[in-house]
Design brief:
This protein is elongated. Strand 2 and strand 3 form a beta hairpin. The protein has a five-stranded mixed β-sheet with strand order 1-2-3-5-4. It contains eleven helices and five strands, in the order αααααααααβαββαββ. It has three domains: 166 residues, no CATH class; 76 residues, Single alpha-helices involved in coiled-coils or other helix-helix interfaces, CATH 1.20.5; 123 residues, 2-Layer Sandwich (Heat Shock Protein 90), CATH 3.30.565.10. Helix 6 packs antiparallel against helix 7 and helix 10 runs antiparallel to helix 11.
C-alpha cells in the first residue's frame, strides 16, 4: 500500500493551473538598443490614441443615450446591450495587450444567463445591467482617453527628439498600460473564476445525470422488463394448457419461476447501481467491503472515518471506488489491490492501489476522465500515478460535508 497523500487544498501532480500575470509577463530590461519588445511597446503606445478614442466615444454614446432614454422602455435595454458591446471591446484590448505587451490575463467568465432557457427577458436584461465586467470596461475606456493622448504624443515626439532613450520611455509608459489592463480588464477576483468553473461543472453534472438515466432506462428495457414480458407470456400459455396438458403447464410454471428469480436478481443489481441499500444502512465500510468481495483479485479495505459524511459525498466515494475496482478486475492483471478511505481536515481522501501492470491514465478512455470530471464538479481532485509496469495508485479527494441526519 502506498503512503497516504495528505490533503493540501492546492494543485498536485498532473494538474495545470492557468492564471494572469506571473513569469510569462516578465520582459527583459530595456536597453539603449531596440529589440522586438521595444518595437511592440512603441506600436502599442502609438495605437493607444485611436483605440482610446473608439472606446471613449462608444462609452459616452452608450451612457448618454441610455440616460436620456431611461424614461422610455428602450433606455435600459439599450444600456444593457451597450454593456455587452463593452465586453467585446475589452476582449479586443486584452488581445492587443497580449500580442504587443505580453500581458497574460484570463478571459472573464460569461454572463450566468447565457445558454439557459429559463428566465425571461427582464431577468436576462438585469443580469447584463449589473455585469461588473462591462462596467469596468466603461471605466477603462473613460480614463484611457487622456492617457492615450499623452502616450501617443510622448512616443511620437520621442521618435524624433529622444531617440536614444525611447526604449526606457516606452517601457515606463507601457508598464502603466499593463497595470491598467490587469486591474480593469482581468477577472476581478477569484469569485469570477469560480463562477466560470461552476458553470462548466454544472454542465458536467447535468450530462452525467442524463447519461445515468439513459443507462437505467436501457438496463430496465433490455433486462428486467424483457424478462417480465417473457414471464407474462409464459404464464399465459401455461394458463391455457392447465386443463389440457397439466404436465406441460407445470413445466412452464417452473420455467417462469426461474425467470422470476433472474428478474429479481437483475432488479437488485440495478438498485445497487443506483444506490446500494448496504451503503444507506451501514455506511462506506460495509458497502466498500461488499464491492471488494466482487472483485476478481483480493482487496484489502481500510476505512478510518470518525463519522459518516453527507449522503451525496458518501455516494460519490462509493461509486468512485466501485468503478476503480472494476478497472482493476478488467485491465490491471493484478494479484492484489487495496482501498483506503480516511479524513484529513475538511477533505475525504480515497486511495485505490494495485500491483498490476500499470499504464492507467486520464487519456486512456472515458472511464477515468469521467471520474475526474465528476469529482471536479464537486470541488474534488483526482490524481493517477500509474507508470508502465506498475504499481498503480489512484487518489481521489472530496470535500468533507457533515451528514445532516
Amino acid at each position: 500500500m502506498s503512503e497516504r497523500i495528505p490533503s493540501t487544498g492546492g494543485t498536485t501532480s498532473g494538474e495545470t493551473t492557468v492564471g494572469g500575470g506571473g513569469d510569462s509577463d516578465r520582459l527583459p530590461p530595456p536597453r539603449l538598443g531596440y529589440d522586438r519588445h521595444t518595437w511592440k511597446e512603441i506600436a502599442y503606445l502609438l495605437l493607444n490614441l485611436p483605440m482610446s478614442l473608439i472606446g471613449f466615444v462608444y462609452t459616452i454614446t452608450v451612457l448618454a443615450t441610455g440616460a436620456l432614454l431611461t424614461v422610455t422602455v428602450v433606455g435600459l435595454p439599450l444600456l444593457a446591450l451597450g454593456l455587452m458591446g463593452a465586453r467585446r471591446l475589452g476582449r479586443l484590448e486584452r488581445a492587443r495587450a497580449r500580442a504587443l505587451l505580453g500581458v497574460r490575463v484570463e478571459e472573464p467568465s460569461r454572463l450566468p444567463w447565457r445558454g439557459r432557457r429559463e428566465g425571461g427577458f427582464l431577468t436576462q436584461m438585469w443580469m447584463m445591467l449589473k455585469d461588473p465586467v462591462g462596467w469596468r470596461t466603461f471605466l477603462y475606456d473613460v480614463i484611457r482617453l487622456p492617457w492615450g493622448v499623452l502616450t501617443f504624443t510622448v512616443t511620437l515626439v520621442s521618435l524624433f527628439v529622444l531617440w536614444p532613450v525611447l526604449p526606457f520611455i516606452a517601457r515606463g509608459l507601457s508598464q502603466v498600460d499593463r497595470a491598467m489592463v490587469r486591474g480593469l480588464l482581468s477577472p476581478s477576483d477569484e469569485l469570477e473564476r469560480r463562477i466560470a468553473e461552476l458553470e462548466s461543472d454544472r454542465g458536467i453534472v447535468v450530462d452525467t445525470a442524463a447519461a445515468d438515466l439513459r443507462r437505467i432506462e436501457r438496463d430496465l428495457h433490455d433486462g428486467a422488463q424483457a424478462r417480465l414480458v417473457n414471464l407474462a407470456m409464459g404464464l399465459g400459455l401455461a394458463k391455457e394448457k392447465l386443463l389440457e396438458d397439466p404436465d406441460s403447464a407445470a413445466e412452464m410454471v417452473s420455467e417462469a419461476h426461474g425467470e422470476v428469480k433472474l428478474a429479481l436478481q437483475e432488479l437488485r443489481d440495478l438498485a445497487r447501481g443506483i444506490h446500494p441499500a448496504v451503503l444507506t444502512d451501514r455506511g462506506l465500510d460495509a458497502a466498500l467491503s461488499s464491492v471488494a468481495s466482487r472483485c476478481t483479485v483480493p482487496v484489502k479495505v481500510t476505512v478510518d472515518l470518525p463519522a459518516r459524511p453527507a449522503e451525496a459525498i458518501e455516494g460519490i466515494a462509493y461509486f468512485t471506488v466501485s468503478e476503480l475496482l472494476q478497472n482493476v478486475s478488467k485491465h490491471s492483471a493484478a494479484r492484489s489491490a487495496g482501498v483506503e478511505v480516511w479524513r484529513s481536515g475538511e477533505r475525504l481522501l480515497i486511495q485505490v492501489s494495485d500491483d498490476g501492470r500499470g499504464g492507467a491514465s486520464l487519456d486512456g478512455g472515458t472511464g477515468m476522465r469521467g471520474l475526474a470530471e465528476r469529482l471536479g464538479a464537486v470541488d474534488g481532485l483526482f490524481v493517477v500515478d500509474s507508470p508502465q509496469g506498475g504499481p498503480t495508485t489512484i487518489t481521489a479527494e472530496l470535500p468533507w460535508r457533515e451528514r445532516t441526519s
